[in-house]
Every structure is written in C-alpha cells, then in structure tokens.
Amino acid sequence: GEGSGAALAMPIVEAACAMFHNMGELAASNIVLPEGNANAT
Fold first, then answer.
1. Which family does it belong to (predicted)?
2. Which of 2, 14, 25, 35 is catalytic?
3. Catalytic residue check, 14
4. Could you report the per-residue pLDDT of 4-27, keeping only the tens digit for each?
C-alpha cells in the first residue's frame, strides 16, 4: 500500500537531500568553465 511505499522511499529522499546539501560550488572546487558557455555568468 501507500504506507509501505512511503517507508521505502524515505531513505532515497534523504540520500538525495544529503547529496544536494553536500555538493560543492564551482568556485570552491577551482573548476573553470570553458569559454563560450551560454550558462556562464
């Protein structure tokens, strides 16, 4: 039922939140985007 599906989904949701929270930023990781990238600011 819905209850067992929610119980099984929670670890996946928590892992996704932890990954998003612990992601670094490009500047902090010393990553330089190539020239001509339309998404670069």
1. Belongs to the CobT family.
2. 2
3. no
4. 998 999 999 999 999 998 887 777
